[in-house]
Fold this protein.
Amino acid sequence: MVDGRAQVPETGRPLRVALLGLGTVGRAVAERLIDAEWRAAVTARGANPPELVAVGVREPGRKRALTLHASIRQTADLDELVADPGIDVVVELIGGLEPAAQLVQRAFEAGKHVVTANKKLLASFGPTLETAARAAGVVLRFEAAVAGGIPVLAPLVLDLAGNRISGVRGIVNGTTNFILTAMARDGRTYADVLSEAQGRGYAEADPSADVEGFDAADKLAILSRLAFGAWPEVGQLRRAGPDTEGDATAGITAIQPLELRYAAELGLAIKLVGDASLWGDAVMASVMPVAVRASSPIGSTDGVTNVVEITAAPVGVVTFQGPGAGGGATSSAVLADLLALARGAGSTWGQLPEPTRTLRIIDPLEVPRAWFLVAADAIGDGVAYRVQDLALASAGDAVVIQPMGLGELRHRLEDRGIRANLYPLLPES
Ligand SMILES: NC(=O)c1ccc[n+]([C@@H]2O[C@H](COP(=O)([O-])OP(=O)(O)OC[C@H]3O[C@@H](n4cnc5c(N)ncnc54)[C@H](OP(=O)(O)O)[C@@H]3O)[C@@H](O)[C@H]2O)c1
């Protein structure tokens, strides 16, 4: 392969695909690849449908909902699969860091292209994997790693190539948005809705990656690489919860139903938002619950739906909304990457130069901004009365506070004996 484009088989034969993982996403991808109607539709659009030749899983003999033709090899030896000269593309859908990282590295060393949906892998090892793919002259595509079925990475890199990107933000975790939406609509507690989400398969048994913002931070790291030209250190992205002292668990676990009700009375919604914007030569980046105008694109995105807003010049603000997870939706992005490879497209970073540095990240919380505050304790004369000199609007024990830095606001609240949950107000785009 030369000049960042994939090597398409010269004979016109299809790309030979090995699929690692037959779970929620892997199965949905396999179903399409072996489906005669899907293949005919792809062919009718002038593309060469890739051929599924092998599948790697933990237990090849296990009975599964999907029956694969005997000609498709099933194996538990994933190391052998990524080295197999009869494979052109490895599709990594096992998730997690290991053995996924080693398998992807070995696939590169064996000259194979890789498609993955693994945001954790990319956010943790992005620079190493990018360098390795470039050095091996192979392609790495990962559209499915951010916002599932919504095409957002390719448009960011390709269709907005004539712009200067100054910000990317949005709801990139469907689980937390499902929980917040149900809490706001029905006045239910976090714990109650979480157990419903787990029952419906929207949340893991251990939900911390979603509800504490780790998953959204991984996606924000990937968006930042493509928007701002370098990989950030994912641990440096600010994850926060809604507390005054700064010691509450990051994410949505501390949010109270009453806070969502007061927000609604003020025309606001509380959402877990990933937000990265240029700040001089650095990037201000965070994943935290924020108050946002309820009728805005972010404020009105409910349930498991995702939304991503890209601010760029000269275009302005471009908004992408759609299904951010689920086998079918996510397989759409994986299949698109496979078809892009089949037509000779390069890696998801396109023509962007290889980063020579790590992105410098700054914490957005000390930058003056307006706040949505909800008193933690009932106050005799009312919280709005005690902060009336700072208030822009109020409802019950909740107040919208005029712009100021978090340090200053904490200081002023302490002086007045107020304990509160605090949500930054997301500026309108
Ligand atoms: N689910 C979504 O909606 C979604 C959306 C966007 C991105 N993603 C990403 O897509 C990837 C796959 O997610 P998923 O939801 O499809 O996961 P999943 O349902 O848990 O499936 C994982 C699959 O990988 C196999 N596997 C795991 N570890 C393995 C190992 N060490 N050796 C061999 N096989 C192994 C499992 O094998 P067994 O079947 O034998 O257990 C299973 O088939 C993850 O990176 C995830 O973050 C998922």
About this structure: The first helix runs from residue 24 to 33. The chain has 14 helices and 17 strands. The radius of gyration is 23 Å. The pocket of NAP is lined by residues 21-26, 56-59, 78, 93-95, 99, 117-119, 144, 148, 325-326, 330 (CB under 6 Å).
